[in-house]
Amino acid sequence: MDAISLICPQCGGPLPRQALWRTVTCLYCTADVTRSEDVVQASRFRAAYQRSVALAAPTIRCGHRDYRTLAQLGAGAHAKIMLADRVGALTERVVLKIAHDGVPADYLIRERDVLNQLQAGTAPGAAYFSQRLPQAVALGSTADAHRVLVLRHPTGFWGSLADVKRHYPQGIDARHVVWMWRRVLEVLAYAHADHWAHGNLAPEHLLVQPNDHGILIIGWARARRCRPSAADRGAWQARDLMQLAWSMRAMLSNTHDEPAIPPSTPRPLAALLTQASTDAAWCIAQGAEGLNALLGHAARESFGPARFIHFSPTPSL
Amino acid sequence: MGHGNYSHAAHAALVADRASASRTEVFAQRGCHPLMDPRGLKMRESRDSADHPHSLGIVFALDVTGSMGDIPQILATRELPTFMTLLNACGVADPQLLFMAIGDATSDQAPLQVGQFESTAELMDQWLTWSYLESGGGGSGEESYELAFYMVAQHTDMDCWVKRRKKGYLFITGDELPYPSISRHQIGTLVGDSLDEDIAIEEAIAAAAETYHVFFLVPDLKRRRNCEARWRELLGDNVICMEAPQDACAVAASIVGLTERAIADLGALSGILAANAIEPERVSAVVRALRPYADLLDPNAVRRVHSGSAGAPAMASQWWKRLFA
After folding, report:
1. Minimal Cα–Cα distance from A137 to chain B, Å?
2. What are chain A's domains?
3. What does the pLDDT read at residue B2?
4. No. of H helices and E strands in chain A?
5. Which of A48, A126, A131 sits opposite B210 (nearest CB)?
6. Among residues of chain A, what percentage have pLDDT more than 70?
7. Contact at CB, A71 and B302, closer than 8 angstroms
């Protein structure tokens, strides 16, 4: 039998048995001892990883990820919303939804589950529309025991329509209301086809992307998935359409109470808004797709062929 | 490697010759080309030269499994000259390209193929078309993308980094998940290195990211759903979900331009793409795909977002509660 003695080639000190298959450090002279020049030390890669995650001081830890907050985007009845970057050499910009004290523990769990199911949807157009919905990245707790939902939003969104309304108390141009309404109806048609109803399409839950005329629907915690055959499915989805119509009325209106449609609104658009906001049976019959088609007609009658008009979310921008 | 001059005319002529050729005619290898076999490979070098004093190493690691053969085909028959033209338009004077081919190390015969850094059209094209499109993959939903990170971290040496501390670029194309770790047995078999332990993919990425800007390009929105979430965990906003595989070259060149600050913003990028004969709908698709990454580079992006910190919590108004409570 050929015996092998595991000794350090530099100082002759005994080496641990691991020297048979990997690089070890001699306990006596601290030399790194390898079996051959072809040996690659995994520890070099591990050290690179440690360097990559030690780049910036985190402010919030969620699960096994650290985040550095950049700005507070807003606050609602249930949570505070922060913009943040994941800490590391390869970062990701995310939105943190941090639950207030006393909010039921399952509130954010439910929102995460809804978003995951929406992302996994199979309705026609899923590949495109799933990109136009928030994605749940992670769910965890902060050091001070607040629940946190980490979300990925499509980029370029400025703020909510409620924020826009605060900057335009006299209401916005009806031509902007047309594209806002249409963008939401497009996504809503997809969600409804996948049997979802949002349940709370208030201006606070509609984020505006001014440059590309985009609208992102957020606040999916109360969304419900109706069975395809459920008798009340149409009613829930019609409720979405009515809420959306009221949100659009609010954007046009110059009052803070129940928003009236201003007399300056072109007649075809005003008629459509009135019917969509008051007639649930009609909304059930049209659906989001039908309403979108009618809106296209009304917009053409009111303003002529569609054209891009720059939108500024505040009068000063 | 990396000597010789790039000629767009020569490259365009080379590519035009085979525009209508089938995939098997363009990629004629029926096994790993001996010069792309990584076994015994010591170092792939991207070096400055008299002709290329500001070399910039760019690695394309192309998934060559069954579902992903379209991108190598598009590069070889159409888009690679466009990539070089766009790099030039972005002010990248001396790019040096290395092509790698990636498959599945658990099932394929040639799961890792590695070319050389090249500056001339003929040699870039040679390594690209020497790639063996095995069209394998194990059906497990994973491919051996992690090998690309290992190879660039361990077996490349670039003057752009050594002399100027300027990182190179690694673009991996793919539509599947990576394996969670690099197997020392696979590395021993494929490359000949005696890796002393398996390496977690996070660690391999971190090591690669010290000298390369690393990106994963998903070919279209349908396939992003297979793999986006995991890749985002690993690479964050350096995962680029394209809308069509033919955007790969324009996206990669635009990333280089934006990262090198040769392109100020997405508005300027649109102008450059349009001026280089990219169709308007493709320009829009490229800009949409790059928006998250461009926002990350833009120090003013955060300031453009409305901050609600000063206001009261957004609550539903009384009339809303009355109507919908």
Report:
1. 8
2. 58-152 (3.30.200.20), 159-303 (1.10.510.10)
3. 56
4. 8, 14
5. A48
6. 98
7. yes
